[in-house]
Write a structure and sequence with these properties.
Elements lengths: L1 H16 L1 H8 L23 H15 L11 H17 L8 H14 L3
Length: about 120
Amino acid sequence: MDRLRAVCEAYPDFAQNRPHRYRVMFGRHREIKRTPVITEPRPADELLGAAAFTKLVAAVAAHTGKEPDPKTSADPTTLWIALHGYASLQAAVPAFPWPEPADMLETLLERLVRSAP
C-alpha cells in the first residue's frame, strides 16, 4: 500500500508543482497546420506520460498481488482517470473548495483499490 500511495500522491503533486510539464504530458495537442487530432487507440507505451502510467500499473499489481483487471475496481486505468480528473479540475477551477489532497487520496484509494476483490 505504501508504494501505491506514493505513486498516487506523486501524480497530483506533479500536476500542481509542474503544471506546464503536466499539460505537455497529458494535454491534447494539435499541430499548427490544424491537422486532425489522432483519436485511434495506440499502445499506451507510445503516448506521452506512458512511464507514469506504467508506474501506476506496477503499483496496483504489487498491492493486489495480481495483474490488473479492467473488470474490477483495482483497474489502474480507473485510478488514473480519478487522479487525472482531480489534478486537471484542480488546475482548471482553483476556486472550488477542494478537499485536502490527503483526504482525496484516501477516498480514492478506499473506493478504487481497497475494494478490489
